[in-house]
Design brief:
Keywords: Membrane, Transmembrane, Transmembrane helix. The chain is of the alpha+beta class. The protein is built from four helices and six strands; from the N terminus they run ααααββββββ. The longest helix has 32 residues.
Length: 180
């Protein structure tokens, strides 16, 4: 702004101006003035009137807070249910006996068979089954056999099994074992 120039103030409606003047003077508002303008204008009154407009404009309404709170509570409940379910599942899953199979070696007998040797660790008294496989140089399964192993009092045993192949094998190994 340049010195000496005044800023143009837009004209106000006469009812608004009269109500504002009356509010500043402390006198009752004229009859034609709006009811909201007739209230005394103080710092506390202007603050209480402005936040609902701004809060509504920016989405900070009480209904929005309640909705956000219920979404947060619902998410926390869902997380707690998933966590408790996982703990129960993991706890019950650990009660099964552990079966472990370790490859000890293989021997290529000829172009159509391979002999696989492995060590099986299983708790005493449990019958198991093991899948033995033969692989070619591209790691493609060319032979497969499921071996049924009866229960025993010895927890650690060694087995050797011959697997017939459809193509020449490069290696033989134990795929996995499970309880029967």
């Amino acid at each position: 702004m340049h010195p000496g120039r005044s800023r143009a103030v837009p004209p106000r409606e006469s009812a608004d101006a009269a109500a504002e003047d009356a509010a500043l003077d402390g006198s009752p508002a004229p009859a034609g003035a709006p009811a909201a303008a007739a209230e005394p204008s103080s710092a506390g009154a202007s603050r209480s009137a402005a936040p609902p407009d701004l809060a509504g404009r920016y989405g900070r309404t009480p209904a929005r807070r309640r909705r956000d709170r219920s979404i947060l509570i619902g998410g926390a409940i869902a997380f707690a249910v998933v966590l408790v379910s996982w703990v129960v599942w993991a706890g019950l899953d650990g009660s099964r006996p552990l079966v472990q199979a370790t490859d000890l070696g293989h021997e290529l007998l000829d172009a159509r068979s391979v002999e696989v040797t492995w060590r099986l660790s299983v708790p005493s008294g449990n019958a198991t089954a093991c899948a033995v496989q033969a692989l070619n140089e591209d790691f493609t399964v060319v032979g497969w056999k499921v071996v049924e192993i009866p229960a025993s009092e010895r927890p650690l045993r060694t087995f050797t099994e011959t697997v017939r192949t459809a193509q020449p094998a490069n290696t033989g190994l134990i795929s996995h074992c499970w309880l029967r």
